[in-house]
Amino acid sequence: MTVLKAEDMMCDHCVERIKNGLEDEGIQVEVDLSEKTVSIDGDDKDVEKAKDILGDLGFFAEEI
Q: Any idea which architecture 2-63 has in CATH?
């Protein structure tokens, strides 16, 4: 599992946007608002795709 940090995630609405955006693309994800993390259950291709989707949704995410 790869963990991304999304510092600009601020509320439950952000969590839902992220979860829905990634799950709609078939990416398994766990989002933790208190830690501001997005955990991706997939390979490197899924992680890169997730970063692109997060960027499209307005969130900057980097691996930690």
A: 2-Layer Sandwich (3.30)
